[in-house]
Specification:
The chain is α/β, with parallel strands linked by helices and 228 residues long. The chain has helices at residues 22-27, 52-61, 75-84, 100-109, 155-168, 183-192, 201-204, 209-222; strands at residues 9-12, 35-40, 66-71, 89-93, 113-118, 136-140, 174-178, 196-199. It is built from 8 helices and 8 strands. Helix 2 links the parallel strand 2 (35-40) and strand 3. The protein is globular and about 40 Å long. The structure holds D-xylitol-5-phosphate and zinc ion (ZN). Zinc ion is lined by residues 13, 36, 38, 69, 178, 198.
Length: 228
Amino acid sequence: MSALHSATHISPSILNCDFMRIGEELDAIANADYAHVDIMDGHFVPNLTFGTAMVEQIVRRCPVPVDTHLMIEDPDRWAPAYAEAGAASVTFHVEAAAAPVRLANELHAKDALVGAAIRPATGLDAVRHLLPHLDMLLIMTVEPGFGGQAFIPNMLEKIRQARELISAENLPVAIQVDGGVKRETIARCAEAGANVFVAGSAVYSADSAYEEIEALRTLANKHAHTLA
Ligand code: DX5
Ligand code: ZN
């Protein structure tokens, strides 16, 4: 697979898949680049999902690498266990991290790619100093917590500014967008500078997850910002 920062990657979120058939739901996205697994603790966001035991099993079964998105309090304490569970990438929220550089180093030492996420209300100033320590910046395009919400168009300007910042310093950092990403919104995200696309309901409510992933990838490539 191409380096995370230098090509288009599609990472379907399994949040809205059929959990009673999770193995088959994972097989259905075998043409994706990653599987996006949302970890929620019922505190940082008003929803509760998976722990490390579940992630370990998902990693074992999943045909593609697992991209974990931790919407949890105290990631300094809990995030390393997701790298140990075999996640290819671990993304924590900067709003919740006490010592994000130390945490990023710890996750890298456990062989995970490291992302930092910001909620819609959090500005880029909160992550600027962190960029040299990251593989990915996740710009939330909905309020974190649930799938199926509408994309917040104001976030496009944040994506543009993040891409400028990353290009200006020539940093190998991917920009991921998560929330309301579908055929109608992916082109604008790609043009603005995002290159890793999470799509949950768009993929799992489609007749064919495979076809939807191909359609999203084609659109993203067609509108891709020139990546450094
Ligand atoms: C929301 C999660 C997303 C969610 C996206 O907090 O982080 O990954 O599953 O779902 P859609 O694509 O339906 O907006
Ligand atoms: Zn997510």
